[in-house]
Amino acid sequence: MSELEKLAEGLGRLLIERGEWLAAAESCTGGWLAQSVTAIAGSSTWFDRGFVTYSNAAKVDMLGVPESMLERHGAVSEAVARAMAQGVLTHSRADWSVAITGIAGPGGGSPEKPVGTVCFAWARKDGGCEAQSCLFSGDRAAVREQSVRYALNGLIDRVGAAVCSA
Prior knowledge:
5-stranded mixed β-sheet, alpha/beta, single chain, 46% helix, 166 residues, 6 helices
């Protein structure tokens, strides 16, 4: 079992304990988080669906991200990551969502948003939405893998905190 699958398995245990569901929106990771989750036997009891919204049009069509937000902030922004995470909750039965949007490279970066810039958001149906940005190093595969790891760890932290406060 890979490290990402081990993280997904731990996340699954937390969600099962709460009787809650997860859904994801992925751009630069292209479904890698969903693949890590669905590699776990029984994940259909806690993982509802994944949206691979690689293009801006997909973010708008599938998740309801406003075009004006994409124009104003760009697809790689905390604002868009938040809108993606909230759109997941609107378009699924999930209690928790995660969104990942970034620049995996090798091209596409700028001085303001260099290659390796990835924005994340985690949302809870009955709670708020948090966003963070990271700058990862390495080649395209390394940036994508680090992004999935960071997103899963962020979910574990948030769901785990909710379990402790329940």
